[in-house]
Amino acid sequence: MQTARTLRDLSCANDYDPNSLPVDQARAFIREFLTPVAVTERVHIRAALDRVLACDVESPLDVPGHDNSAMDGWAVRFADLAPDRDTTLRRVGESFAGRPFAGELREGETVRIFTGAVMPRGADTVVMQERAQETPEGAMIAKGAVTKAGQNRRFAGEDLKRGGNVFRKGQPLRPAEIGMLASLGINEVSVYRRLRVAFFSTGDELRSLGQPLGEGEIYDSNRYTLHGMLTRLGCETLDLGVVPDVPEALEDAFRKAASAADVVITSGGVSVGEADFVKDLLGKLGEVLFWKIAMKPGRPLAYGRIGGAHFFGLPGNPVSVMVTFYEFVRDALLILQGRANVTQPPTFKATLAATIRKAPGRTEFQRGVLSPGERGWQVRTTGDQGSGILSSMSRANCFIVLPADMGNVDPGTEVDVQWLEGIL
Ligand code: AMP
Ligand code: MG
Question: Which of 139, 228, 248, 361 shows a CA-CA span of 20 to 30 A to 420?
């Protein structure tokens, strides 16, 4: 496939239908336009948690640095052990973790050794203490206590070799990676700078917290959900408040957001009717495509660029905001943060416990509750699936993903579920 250079090129592709764009196609379009942040900063490894590594890391040392014991026991020369009877060896010293035995093991000798302690010179094998009996002179090693030389011994460099690659750039730094960096004696790493994400809500009916509600007015919840989801992803957030459906106010907000952030996210104002003047406005400020995604919830979605910023115009309904964020924005933000190998949250199969009603035509992301059943995982919906019912997201621990062409689904059917815990 030839690489499209502008959003307009893409939208002229033959298979492109902005009035019913399949979920996968929208994802693929978005991916073509994501350029990760390039600016890096050096931080202490404690501050690097959940950041993205900006350079390859090579090991400055062998880990472990020395051959050492994997057990509490007795360091021996394998050749000294008789294959057909117990063997008594003379104890000549001890090797503790951090306090090695200074001498060398000779024929018929043993050294008491503890986990992590350096293997004494001359010893090649460790017998676990349960297979030996301590005697006044040393240790009696049970017949067959070890079956080959080198047993219970960890080798220098068996985890990491000096000069070998440890991590590639783009690696997310989780507790395991932070621990590995520490084990290499590395206390500072280069990471990509945090992504700055500006967001605001649009709608004349929206009030901010602390204001009294007039008739027909509602509290703005989307900004708070977005703040939560963005914070979980490690983004720097810039909350620009509620903007009324007034062209001048919106223009102002878009300009301000785009000049201050890498990504601008709005909610509301992209549905039919409302979208018209927002469309004109964004056509003036940048390049934005308005899509009706063939999904439920979350049909209207706008994507494009305003100035130097990426733009996601999410629908207004609170559930649609969360679903479109999980399905489109999350991955995009991970890629923009510099992460390598970004994939969708994985789906797996579970058995449907109660009927789901669905009309063919759109991919549905129903809110589900996944629980262990008698024969594997089973799933049911949270009940009413209206896109304004945010409590359905709160009760859910998964999405039940029903493909576009599927109709009603009977109990007992295997369906795809996307586990939500830990994704954001
Ligand atoms: P819209 O996409 O602007 O037509 O909004 C669709 C529905 O979502 C309407 O019922 C809005 O009142 C509601 N809505 C829009 N924005 C928000 C918000 N920030 N918080 C809560 N509800 C909202
Ligand atoms: Mg609105």
Answer: 361
Q: How far apart, in whole angstroms, are the C-alpha atoms of residue 43 and residue 2?
A: 40
Residue ranges for the chain with pLDDT beneath 70: 1-5, 423-424
Q: Whose CA is nearest to atom 14 of ligand 1?
A: 316
For residues 49 and 92, membership in a common domain is answered with no
Number of domains in the chain: 4
CB 88 within 8 A of CB 138: yes
Q: What is the pLDDT of residues 14-52, one digit of tens each?
A: 778 888 899 999 999 999 999 999 999 999 999 999 999
**Dist. CA 52–CA 401, nearest whole Å:** 30
Closest-CA residue, ligand 1 atom 10, reads: 317
For 183, 225, 230, 249, 323, the CA distances from 208, given in Å and listed in that order, are 48, 14, 19, 16, 23
Looking at the chain, the number of H-run helices and the number of E-run strands are: 9, 26
From the list 103, 110, 104, 101, the residue with the least C-alpha distance to 68 is: 101
Q: Is 170 in the pocket of ligand 1 (CB under 6 A)?
A: no
The answer to whether the CB of 315 is under 6 A from ligand 1 is: yes
Instruction: Please work out whether the CB of residue 222 comes within 6 Å of at least one atom of ligand 1.
Output: yes
Do 361 and 386 lie in one domain? The reply is yes
Q: What is the pLDDT at residue 424? A: 54
What would the pLDDT profile of 57-92 be if each residue is shown by its tens digit? 999 999 999 999 999 999 999 999 999 999 999 999
Residue 187 and residue 44 share a domain: yes
Q: Is the CB of 218 under 6 A from ligand 1?
A: yes
Residues 129 and 11 in one domain: no
| Structural domain contains residue 323 | yes
Domain assignment present for residue 2? The answer is no
Question: Is 159 within a domain?
Answer: no
> What CATH number is associated with residue 376?
2.40.340.10
> Is the distance from CB of 351 to CB of 416 less than 8 angstroms?
no
| Phi and psi, residue 145, nearest 5° | -60, -35
Round to whole Å and give the CA distance between 115 and 98: 10
Amino acid in position 45 = I
Three-state DSSP class for 67?
A: coil
The rounded distance, in Å, linking the Cα atoms of 330 and 324 is 9
**Are 179 and 205 found together in one domain?**
no
**Full domain range(s) for residue 370:** 348-419
Paired sense of beta strands 125-128 and 57-58, if any:
unpaired
Is the whole-model pTM more than 0.70? Answer: yes
Q: How far does residue 246's CA lie from ligand 1's centre (Å)?
A: 15
Residues 295 and 208 occupy one common structural domain:
yes
